[in-house]
Amino acid sequence: KRLGKVLHRAGVKNLIIRGDEIKPDNISGSLPKLNSVVVDKALNRIGTIVSVFGPVNHPYFLVKGFKRTSNSEFRALVNERVYVR
Predict the structure, then answer these.
(1) Helix, strand, coil abundance in the chain, percent, nearest 5
(2) Least buried of 38, 60, 68, 76, by fewest C-beta within 10 Å?
């Protein structure tokens, strides 16, 4: 399931993601749960969702990256779409 687009890095191993727009009639069913695993388009595990904030219909997500993911991989994710597994 598509989560959204990576806006920028926050710190060394964190990402801020702007979630895709959520229709008002399906808000509770379409928000991913905290600690959900986030993957890139090649299904490589990036990290987990640790926080959801911002407007309900266009949320932002804070993703804490896994330790084994390198800094260059995080830099390459900016402006890329990511997904929830």
Answers:
(1) 15, 40, 40
(2) 68
What is the tally of helices (H) and strands (E) in the chain?
Answer: 2, 6
Tell me: the pLDDT tens digits for 48-65? 999 999 988 889 999 999
Which residues have CB under 8 Å from 27's CB, separation 6+?
Answer: 56, 57
CB of 49 closer than 8 Å to CB of 4 = no
For residue 4, count other CB atoms closer than 10 A to its CB.
21
pLDDT of 24 over the 90 cut: no
